[in-house]
Amino acid sequence: MTQAYVVRFVGGPLDGRVDSHAKPPESPKQTVTHVHLHGGPKIVHHYDLQYAVEYGCEYRLRVED
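Above: the chain sequence. Below: its structure as tokens.
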């Protein structure tokens, strides 16, 4: 049985989200942008790629200065 490649999101509105893929992407995105548009002003969050040896990779919320 092949173990899935797991992508986790840490922080912000996507905190706790887990995506599972059959294999790692050949060139993963270094940054994922999430735009929140639900009935109010547009709110943009950026998640930066970090590798996690145990399961795949994770995207951590970027702390804006």
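The first strand starts at residue 5 and ends at 10.
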